[in-house]
Structure formats: structure tokens, C-alpha cells
Amino acid sequence: MLKLSGEALAGERGFGIDPPVVDRLTDEIVEVHATGVELGLVVGGGNIVRGTTASEGGMDRVAADYMGMLSTVINGLALQDLLERKGLDTRLMSAIRLDEVAEPYIRRRAERHLEKGRVVLFAGGTGNPYFSTDTAAVLRAIEIGAEAVLKATSVDGIYSADPHLDPDAEFLERISYLDVLRRDLRVMDATAISMCRENDLPIVVFNIHQHGAVRGILAGESVGSTVAAS
Ligand code: UDP
Q1: Helix or strand or coil: residue 153?
Q2: Pocket test for ligand 1, best of 53, 72, 73, 133 (most atoms within 8 A of CB)
Q3: Concatenated DSSP letters for 39-81?
Q4: For residues 177 and 229, is the Cβ–Cβ distance under 8 A?
Q5: Protein residue whose Cα sits closest to atom 19 of ligand 1
Q6: What is the pTM of this model?
Q7: Distance separating the N- and C-terminal Cα atoms of the chain
Q8: Partners of 200 in the beta sheet?
Q9: How far apart are CA 153 and CA 156, in angstroms?
Q10: At what angle do helices 133-144 and 190-199 cross, to 10 degrees?
Q11: Those residues with Cβ within 8 angstroms of residue 28's Cβ, 6 or more apart along the chain or in another chain
Q12: In angstroms, rounded to a whole number, what is the distance separating the alpha carbons of residues 84 and 30?
């Protein structure tokens, strides 16, 4: 299960969708799919609406979160369009009913799509306010029996502090779920990390701007940082 944040689609712009960036990301997805792996994608929405930010501006949190969830559908449609133009067979599934644009999420149907070699894009987050798309990625990964969650970020992996701010930040190649929580490393929100821990689902955090990173991870190369039981 590959988790792509909205930020990854916005590139340097920081907002909306940057077509050359999405073009490169989808090339990478096409290459990964060609290896024969069953691939699910969970897309974020922070490049359009982030619930917490909107509610800090005075908006009702639940309404803001639904706007965030709808943002993930917009991103999903953009990714789907480009992936299909590049020859992949895809299905966009939404946790929120939007019958004209996406299939409703049904686990068995998602599994069938994956078996048939379709790339499944999971949009709409978990379908519930107060959650994140990281939690959605973990939830869907557990439901469909994924081997790992690959979390795309703009840094090489997990550091002891933010490497953009602290030059002494130490790179952590492997770390336990508990240490991520104890040290408040913000790899994913605590709900997502706890779910991974309870279900023994490894998380690999890697730099999406590093070409070939996903293929490397799948080939067992040491790419990024791994969060696992110990
Ligand atoms: N969201 C939500 N429930 C979910 C997933 C997402 O309410 O299950 C909302 C929430 O407001 C969040 C926004 O959708 O801020 C966008 O998702 P997220 O911030 O996880 O996106 P990312 O940071 O990955 O771009």
C-alpha cells in the first residue's frame, strides 16, 4: 500500500496539483506496477483542504474534515486520469458515496481488482471526520492484507529531529512502533502507528523524489526507514 500525501502532488507550489510532479510520480507507479506487484494507493488531500487548518480559521471541524475527504477524491481523479493515460487499468474507490465519480469502497471488490492487476486508488480517507489519510492507508492495508505501508515523504526517511531545521538530526534506519510513539517522531499520527503495531504491519518511510525508491523497497534494498516490531 503506497500512501501519497497531497503535498507530494503539489511539488514546490505547496498547493493544488503540479502536473509535471504528478507526471513523474505516475511514471514511477507505472514502473512499479510493471514488476507485477499488487499495488494500492491511498491519496491525501492536504494540498487542497486540511481539516485542522480550516477549523482553526473558524470553520466547523466536521464540515472542514469532509472538505478534506473530498479533496482526496479530487487528487484521486487526477492520479487516475494520468495512470490510465499511461496504460494502467485502475479503479477509484471512495469511502464516501460519490457514485458518479468513484466506486464505493467494498473490501472484497477491492481485493478482486488487485488480483486482476488493477491499481486501486483509495480515496475519501476512512470516511470519518477526525481521522487522517495515514490512518486510512493503514486501515485499508490491514483490510486487504497488504504486506507493508510505504509512506512517501519529502525526506529520506525518519530522523531524530526535522532535518530541514536541525543539522544534527540523526537518520534512523530502523525503529520500533513504540519508539516512534515515545519519541513523538511524527512519522504518522499516533492512531495510524498504533494500528500498525497491533496488526504487525511494517511501515517504510522514503523520499518520493528519489527515483526508483519504491522499486528498491520492493526488491528488498535498504531504502528509507522501516518501522516494525523491533
Ligand atoms: N480526513 C478526514 N478523515 C479521514 C481522512 C482525511 O476527515 O479519514 C480529512 C482531514 O480533514 C484531513 C484531510 O481530510 O486534514 C486531508 O487528509 P490528510 O491531511 O491526511 O492528507 P495529507 O496530509 O496526506 O495530504
Answers
A1: strand
A2: 133
A3: -EEEE--TTT--HHHHHHTT--HHHHHHHHHHHHHHHHHHHHH
A4: yes
A5: 46
A6: 0.96
A7: 21
A8: none
A9: 8
A10: 20
A11: 208, 211, 212, 213, 214
A12: 10
**Closest residue by Cα to residue 226 from 182, 171, 183:** 171
Q: Supply 184's cell numbers.
A: 513523538
Question: What is the predicted pLDDT for the residue at 119?
Answer: 98
**Ligand 1 shell residues, CB under 6 Å:** 5-7, 44-46, 50-52, 64-65, 68-69, 71-72, 125-126, 128-129, 131-134, 136
Do β-strands 149-153 and 2-4 pair in parallel, antiparallel, or remain unpaired?
Answer: parallel
Cell reading at 148: 507493508
Residue 152 pLDDT level (bands cut at 50, 70, 90): very high
**Amino acid identity for residue 3 in this structure:** K
Secondary structure letter of residue 161 according to DSSP: S
Instruction: Find the 35 Cα to ligand 1 centroid distance in Å.
Output: 30
Backbone phi, then psi, for 127, in 5-degree steps? 90, 0
Nine cell digits for residue 167:
543539522
Please report which confidence band the pLDDT of residue 154 belongs to, taking 50, 70 and 90 as the band edges.
confident
Match 519508539 to its residue by C-alpha cell: 179
C-alpha 122 to ligand 1 mean position (Å) = 13
